[in-house]
TrEMBL record:
Its EC number is 3.1.4.4. It catalyses: a 1,2-diacyl-sn-glycero-3-phosphocholine + H2O = a 1,2-diacyl-sn-glycero-3-phosphate + choline + H(+). Residues 213-243 form the PLD phosphodiesterase domain. It is an enzyme of class 3 (hydrolase). The keyword Hydrolase applies. This is phospholipase D. GO terms for molecular function: phospholipase D activity; RNA endonuclease activity producing 5'-phosphomonoesters, hydrolytic mechanism. It comes from Halomonas huangheensis. Belongs to the phospholipase D family.
Length: 483
């Protein structure tokens, strides 16, 4: 009898412990989704006068024989900007490594080229300060230390990996448990015993557990001094060997906007204990020419929704997206069509990412949904590379155009303050050179020809069913996805 009572008490204790664990798990998951964010996360900076603004792109296309052709500008410009710097270089890049997974589409060893350019700049100009910010994914969350980062540190370059715990949880079902103590386990770059899915050195179990939080510093920016001013580059491109054939875009801008980018990055550097002294406060925009505005995280979402809402009958919206899954953004596009706005959407087919095969989510079911309401959809032609640009362009009938481009994919994770992101809102007349360049870039991607094949139309045979539609929606809403 006494033994039965002890057994019953033990069972009740186990039940209560499980209940307490579930309560703690749920409470932590909730807190990680609503906790306060640092001040500069999700910020729209003031409008600035655009100075020396240039549009850059990396383009891939196929000729009539199926041969791939490349025209790459972005990292040539990055290397040039670094080479002329004399005081300060601050670079924040999401993927900065030489790994390529199972992807054979490597055209340039970007990680080594960029690392060597930074090292050379430091050696030639010892007074030059170089700060490199990147995402912990490059070290598989502390499980490896790539050799190029060691070389950067040995040359006197400040390298820091972003403290992602400052951000909210994009996958709260896992992060609630992670922050109950698993996050304090640390990691060991020399203790790997599990195969690395990115085909690098073996890693620990802790690396995979950390990865399941699915959040990142996804920014791609560069700020340098240039003579008596400052220049910034905001892009969708990564210095990642496996991404070296991807299609991407960038804006290179001199003047006050570059100081906004520097201030934004100084905050992230500060999370890692690196202090960056900022120059004098820039002045706001004036005049009728091109204007630019730095937007980060949820401010990119707000600016995108406002841009779409601003479109009227007779206007046109052109969108190029690697991932399109953000429900408010999709709904805004559908409402714009009802107002008589012409919309063209160019999508990556989502067949590959990080060198791994994917099932077409989220873009395949989203393309079906857009087509059904009268939105023109085309697929980028890809063979191992990605259509990685993120561009939203409002072409006004009266000529006052707007463009948003940068790092942010059009998903909940990228637009709702779960990742760090940086984009630029550009406002200018349609006859401004930079606007003409952006329009020409989109037209060349959209209007494929036999001699220069870049895209193809959506076909009715590609219609997604209800399962794919609801599957991507659940993944998008819960964060149980990699997009």
């Amino acid at each position: 009898m006494q033994g039965r009572r002890k057994g019953a008490r033990a069972k009740r204790l186990v039940v209560w412990l499980l209940v307490l664990l579930l309560l703690a798990w749920g409470t932590m998951a909730l807190w990680q989704t609503i906790k306060p964010l640092p001040d500069t996360v999700g910020k729209a900076w003031p409008l600035r006068t655009a100075e020396d603004i240039r549009f850059l792109s990396d383009r891939t296309w196929y000729d009539a024989r199926g041969q791939r052709h490349l025209d790459q500008q972005i990292f040539d410009e990055v290397l040039s900007m670094i080479a002329q710097a004399r005081q300060l270089v601050v670079m924040d890049m999401f993927l900065f490594n030489s790994l390529s997974g199972d992807n054979p589409s490597v055209s340039r060893h970007l990680a080594d080229q960029l690392s060597q350019a930074l090292i050379d700049a430091r050696q030639q100009h010892p007074q030059l300060r170089v700060v490199v910010i990147s995402d912990p994914l490059n070290t598989f969350y502390g499980g490896v230390m790539p050799e190029h980062f060691r070389k950067l540190q040995d040359s006197g370059i400040e390298v820091l990996f972003t403290d992602l715990d400052r951000l909210r949880a994009s996958n709260p079902l896992w992060s609630g448990l992670w922050h109950l103590g698993l996050d304090r386990l640390g990691n060991d770059p020399e203790g790997g015993w599990l195969p690395n899915i990115f085909k690098g050195p073996d890693v620990t179990l802790r690396s995979y557990l950390a990865m399941l939080n699915f959040r990142a510093n996804h920014r791609k920016t560069l700020v340098v001094d240039q003579n008596d001013t400052w220049s910034a580059l905001i892009t969708s491109a990564n210095p990642h060997d496996g991404s070296s054939r991807h299609g991407n875009v960038a804006l290179r801008i001199s003047g006050n906007l570059a100081l906004d980018v520097l201030a934004s990055e100084a905050t992230v550097a500060g999370w890692g204990g690196v202090d960056i002294e900022l120059p004098a406060e820039p002045v706001a925009a004036s005049g009728d020419g091109a204007q630019v505005q730095l937007v980060t995280e949820s401010a990119i979402r707000d600016a995108s929704l406002a841009l779409i809402a601003d479109a009227e009958s007779g206007d046109r919206l052109d969108m190029a997206a690697f991932y399109l899954a953000h429900r408010p953004l999709i709904d805004a596009l559908k409402q714009a069509v009802e107002r008589g706005v012409q919309i063209r959407v160019l999508l990556d087919p989502n067949r590959e990412a990080f060198g791994f095969a994917k099932g077409g989510l989220p873009n395949q079911p989203v393309a079906t949904e857009l087509h059904d309401v009268g939105i023109a959809v085309r697929w980028c032609l890809t063979a191992g590379e990605q259509c990685h640009s993120k561009v939203l362009h409002l072409v006004r009938a009266n000529g006052g155009n707007k463009v948003i481009l940068g790092s942010a994919n059009m998903t909940r994770r990228n637009l709702d303050d779960y990742n760090l992101e940086t984009s630029v809102l550009l406002k200018a007349p349609s006859d401004e050179p930079v606007m003409r360049q952006i329009s020409a870039w989109f037209e060349q991607r959209w209007e494929s020809s036999p001699e220069r094949r870049t895209s193809r139309r959506w076909r009715p045979a590609e219609r997604s069913g209800w399962f794919e539609n609801w599957r991507y929606r659940v993944m998008e809403a819960t964060g149980l996805s990699t997009f």
